[in-house]
Design a protein that fits this description.
Length: 479
């Protein structure tokens, strides 16, 4: 690969979180029987007129604001003409000349440090139908036709499959924070067309671009890029020419395959959509949407690390999902400020383990921020010990409630009184003479075994620190 530069750009199609389609009132419920969520508008019947979805416009503008785009105060829709079974009216309503959002960027982390990937523009359009291929025939499902799609077009600023993954992950996280899309790859909420080219180092002009269409998994995009880059480099190093074309990724063969020669904009015969008026946004409306924006994930990571005294790694893990970050912050605010790291530790270990085992999100569990805060506080004030806290958390996660109520009802309070524990320590030492002898012989690990026996005898209620001190004192006296 020495001697060549790799250039990658992505066109990412994002299904917007609306209840109805872009230009009609049909439902967007996923999983419906084929061709049941349809009407004359999305089927393209003659005389049926589109009506613009206002919420789709708002969500697109919000996305642009999150990405630092310039918002067009006036934008228009166009007809993108093509003949294919997935668009029954033989054109797609899209934006070509004046998109809603222009410019902007996504910040990613690379091996060489932080990098900003520029956004060319974001435009709004309707999705096409879905073609399902079977052994003897193909079927067209128009339930998806007319779905509001936001297309985010990057500049060719990416230089490797790793950078492409970092860009897509960062973009997905921003969109989830903004609440504009579910970004569910399994349901086709996020798909990308991948543009890739190679050129010799020192050549300013970009190489011939090849597009890989409609990739709907990050794993697939990464594998397709690796293959296509290797294919192009092998071609140019042996003196061959790269043909501008559209290719598809075949995951079973592990290779890209030609589909058609690459179209240019004039091939689609774009012209203004005569049935839709321009979108005109008032300054006050745009500023109101801007004022309601959430923090960017990167900003939140930095703020949480500083506000709660947690490492950057903890902040990154917690901020990865907005609802996890919201939960952590609510719990941390309900504790003393010095307990932020403790709350972080409990969420990142015990709570996330329960989330993984159950397959639930934190909002689907019965655990509340106040319950986690109270559990951490009870542990910090030594009302309960660690084993008791770990015993209570799964129940709080499954059934809810407050730890203090469970502790009081079941008598789970920690025993810290040295006099009360002294008898238990003496009993354990008397019943485990061999371990005492091992300790005297220099096997210091025997002390840990004895502490464990006292904890078992107390049914986990003894204060481990007090027990450890008492056992050490008795063993020292015995030796």
């Amino acid at each position: 690969m020495t001697g060549y530069l790799i250039t990658i750009g992505l066109e990412t199609h994002v299904q917007l979180r609306t209840a109805t389609k872009m230009f009609c009132g049909c439902s967007l419920a996923f999983g419906a029987e084929p061709n049941t969520n349809v009407c004359p508008v999305c089927l393209g019947y003659p005389g049926a007129l589109p009506v613009m979805n206002r919420e789709a416009v708002r969500l697109t503008v919000v996305s642009g604001l999150m990405l630092g785009c310039e918002i067009s105060r006036r934008s228009t829709f166009d007809r993108k003409n093509y003949f294919y079974p997935d668009m029954s009216k033989d054109y797609q309503i899209s934006q070509n000349g004046s998109p809603l959002c222009v410019g902007g960027s996504v910040r990613i982390e690379t091996a060489a440090g932080a990098k900003r990937v520029r956004i060319n523009h974001i435009h709004l359009e309707e999705d096409a139908a879905k073609i399902n291929h079977y052994a003897r025939f193909s079927g067209v499902d128009f339930n998806r036709c007319g779905t509001p799609l936001m297309e985010i077009v990057s500049e060719p600023d990416l230089a490797s499959p790793d950078e492409a993954m970092a860009y897509l992950q960062a973009l997905k996280q921003i969109l989830l924070y903004a609440g504009v899309s579910d970004c569910n790859l399994e349901e086709g909420n996020l798909r990308s067309d991948v543009n890739v080219s190679v050129r010799p180092i020192g050549q300013e002009r970009l190489g011939t671009k090849v597009e890989i269409k409609n990739m709907n998994t990050f794993k697939g995009i990464y594998a397709a890029l690796e293959y296509e880059i290797a294919r192009q480099l092998a071609t140019v190093t042996r003196g061959g020419l790269i043909v501008q074309e559209t290719r598809r990724w075949d995951p079973e063969l592990g290779e890209t395959q030609p589909m058609r020669s690459k179209e240019n904009a004039h091939d689609y015969r774009y012209f203004p959509e005569p049935d839709l008026v321009p979108v005109e946004l008032e300054e006050a409306q745009v500023e109101a949407w801007r004022a309601a924006l959430p923090e960017l994930p990167a900003v939140r990571r930095g703020r949480m690390a500083e506000a709660y005294g947690i490492p950057d790694y903890d902040a990154a893990v917690l901020a990865d999902a907005k609802e996890n970050a919201d939960f952590f912050e609510a719990a941390a605010r309900a504790c003393e400020p010095r307990l932020g790291k403790t709350v972080s530790n409990w969420f990142m270990t015990e709570v996330m383990r329960l989330l993984s085992e159950s397959g639930l999100t934190i909002s689907q569990s019965a655990l509340t921020p106040s319950a986690l805060a109270e559990l951490v506080t009870l542990l910090d004030t030594r009302v309960i010990n660690g084993p008791t806290a770990k015993e209570l958390l799964p129940e709080l996660f499954r059934a809810g409630g407050l730890p203090s109520a469970l502790v009081a009802a079941r008598g789970l309070g920690q025993v810290s009184d040295a006099d009360a524990l002294a008898a238990l320590v003496q009993q354990v030492l008397s019943e485990n003479g061999k371990s005492v002898a091992d300790y005297r012989a220099g096997k210091r690990a025997a002390a840990g075994f004895l502490v464990g026996q006292v904890m078992k005898l107390s049914k986990g209620k003894a204060d481990p620190q007090v027990v450890g001190r008492l056992v050490a004192e008795r063993l020292a006296g015995a030796s």
